[in-house]
Amino acid sequence: NGLLTYDPGFRSTASCQSAITYIDGDAGQLLYRGYPIEELAASCSFSEVAHLLMYGELPTAEELTGFQRNINDHNLLHDQVLSFYHGFRRDAHPMAVMVGVVGALSAFYQDAQDYNRDADQHKAAIRLVAKMPAIAAASFTYSIGRPIRHPDNRLDYASNFLQMMFGKPNEPYHVDPVLAKAIELILILHADHEQNASTSTVRMAASSGANPFACIASGIATLWGPAHGGANEAVLNMLEMIGSPDRIPDIVRRAKDKNDPFRLMGFGHRVYKNYDPRAALIRDTTRQVLAHLGMENSPLMATALELERVALEDEYFIAKKLYPNVDFYSGILLRAMGFPSRMFTAVFAVARTVGWVSHWLELKRIGHGIDRPRQLYTGPTVRHLDKR
Ligand code: CMC
What we know:
Number of strands: 3
Structural class: mainly alpha
Strand order of the largest sheet: 1-2-3
Largest sheet: 3 strands, antiparallel
Helix content: 40-55%
Bound molecules: carboxymethyl coenzyme *A
Radius of gyration: 22 Å
Distance between the termini: 28 Å
């Protein structure tokens, strides 16, 4: 069909108009609603950034209080949702559990059938953002057999996530301000990234008018892959496999070998052809948190820094413009904070839920009908059963 443009992987196709996030991949610039990510990371809380992404503006003090109250009103999980966890194997991957539990929420919040009213859309978006830390934390506590801890509305969003993850049921949780700031940074940096694979999936699911909870479950499924959000877990596995800096030349050689499927995890990006600004921010915070925890000599960090140095001086990586991405250092930081590697992508999902619902709200407002890509057909031409 001469009218079709063939663009596998959507390398040069804009699938929608969006006013949420802007990336200049050559300059290594990332803006949320026009604000540089560095400025937001330095001065804002995750709740402020969530408000900015969802509603277009940073909140006034009054709006922020209202937003947080709204989150606190909706952050509990329905008692029957909690019973879902017991149907999963304890060794199930947290992302597998989250796909199931978030998808199941569509059976609980189906009251506004087609979600065409503004108020219902915003309530669904708030419910998703509010419940996601509890859903992720429960997938962890269930896996280790610890009773699920409920949200504590005296805490902010990020600290609440930490207490649900790590608080013991029989002890008050002590918030470490350095760790609380670090998780806040991780959440802010992962909150949105325009039309990445999972966000595009959410938008495509939503374009048919599907239930928002089911749409977000499809985003979680897409995020899980190692080429996308699953890369943070894969980076840690890679750094552990490398073991010590002297094995780096061999790993770099493998990454360049076209007969070897191995890739340097946490390196390269479809849009950034420069240093991912999020990677630089996470690297600096990782150093601070390691120092705070007395882990300055972390072998994982030493290996990562040396791997970055070697790769950035290598002709192959220079020519292909492959730089560390957001996932390169985040695993080291999360591990130092106590997150097991299998929870890394779940943390990403908690943060990205804000982006997903922001895109869902935008699509509900200025959608363009159902997404329906075409294809280049490569199968047989017409043939008939009686000629077999
Ligand atoms: N290690 C070695 N070679 C690489 C890498 C890498 N990490 N990334 C890309 N290349 C090479 C690739 O082999 C190809 O070479 P050639 O032109 O000779 O065929 C060239 O660079 C371009 O790669 P591509 O696969 O066409 O690029 P893409 O835009 O389709 O893929 C990517 C982007 C992120 C999937 C890829 O760089 C990759 O697999 N990186 C490792 C996984 C990773 O870190 N993912 C996290 C991405 S950021 C967070 C997120 O989006 O969730």
